[in-house]
UniProtKB/TrEMBL annotation:
Belongs to the anti-sigma-factor antagonist family. Pfam families: STAS (PF01740). Coiled coil: none annotated. PANTHER family: ANTI-SIGMA FACTOR ANTAGONIST TM_1081-RELATED, ANTI-SIGMA FACTOR ANTAGONIST TM_1081-RELATED-RELATED. PROSITE patterns: STAS. It comes from the Bacteria. InterPro entries: Anti-sigma_ant, STAS_dom, STAS_dom_sf. It comes from Streptomyces pyxinae. The lineage of its organism: Bacteria, Bacillati, Actinomycetota, Actinomycetes, Kitasatosporales. This is Anti-sigma factor antagonist. Residues 19-116 form the STAS domain.
């Protein structure tokens, strides 16, 4: 399966956010596409990202690595990376790996946008 990506800018109580909508599978084959998108956004000055994973069907360790790398990039600029995920099978991966302590995970995009850092 392929990976679909789209971005949009929004302003919420916490300030400007860039929402990255991700669909499909984030795996060893498609993760580089997501990595490129996150690097490009940070290079363009978007330091507060919301990654909407509601459309993600599968996530492997390569995908987790890309998300952690994105978090490191935005934190280097005093930024934030919030995840939107409400699928139990994907949330389980974050719990098992302990990444629920690393990423703020929200159930809706609106909730993530309204969150303040």
């Amino acid at each position: 399966m392929d990976l679909s990506l789209s971005t949009r800018n929004v302003t919420g109580p916490g300030g400007d956010r860039t929402v990255v909508e991700v669909g499909g599978e984030i795996d060893v084959y498609t993760a580089p596409k997501l990595r490129e998108q996150l690097v490009e956004l940070v290079n363009d000055g978007s330091y507060h990202l919301v990654v909407d994973m509601e459309g993600v069907d599968f996530l492997d360790s390569t995908g987790l690595g890309v998300l952690v790398g994105g978090l490191k990039r935005v934190r280097a600029h005093e930024g934030s990376l919030r995840l939107v995920c409400n699928q139990e099978r994907i949330l389980k991966i974050f719990r098992i790996t302990g990444l629920t302590k690393v990423f703020p995970i929200h159930t809706t995009v609106e909730e993530a946008i309204e969150a303040t850092d």
